[in-house]
Amino acid sequence: QVQLVESGGGLVQPGGSLRLSCAASGSILHIVSLGWYRQAPGNQRELVATRTSGGSTNYADSVKGRFTISRVNARNTLYLQMDALKPDDTAVYYCTGRIYSAPGQWDDYWGQGTQVTVSS
């Protein structure tokens, strides 16, 4: 089994910064990609940023230039550096990963989510 555990959420004022972390653990053979999604009350879950094992990244237009996704491969840890935060960034942020746990056996895994609130 594979687990993804997020941390680093909290309350921050507009214009501030937060860094989210996601630790992947368990029966991990190979990580294809990791990413962040978010869901605000009343809204559908939406992509924030993704990163493949090869280092390719993809960002939602709404966060380009403000958020940075990165990974420490040796620790199977994913980060999301969020700068210039806006009230519209308020949401529960979820870590997700497409991960092989055995040869030919992969799944999409999700963390439990961490709340980010941007408010004065």
Would you kindly provide a written description of the structure presented here, covering whatever features stand out?
With 120 residues, the protein is mostly beta strands. Helix content is 0%, strand content 61%. The chain is built from no helices and eleven strands. It has strands at residues 2-7, 10-12, 18-26, 30-39, 46-52, 57-59, 67-72, 77-82, 91-102, 105-110, 114-118. A hairpin with a 4-residue loop joins strand 5 and strand 6 (57-59).
Based on secondary structure, the structural category is mainly beta
Mean pLDDT: 96
How much of the polypeptide forms β-strand, as a percent range?
over 45%
Order of SSEs: EEEEEEEEEEE
Rough outline? elongated
- Please tally the helical runs, counting DSSP H or I stretches of 4 or more residues: 0
Low-confidence stretches: none
Rg is 14 Å
Assign a percent range to the helix content. under 10%
Q: Distance N terminus to C terminus?
A: 40 Å
Number of strands: 11
Described by strand count, sense and barrel closure, the largest sheet is: 7 strands, mixed
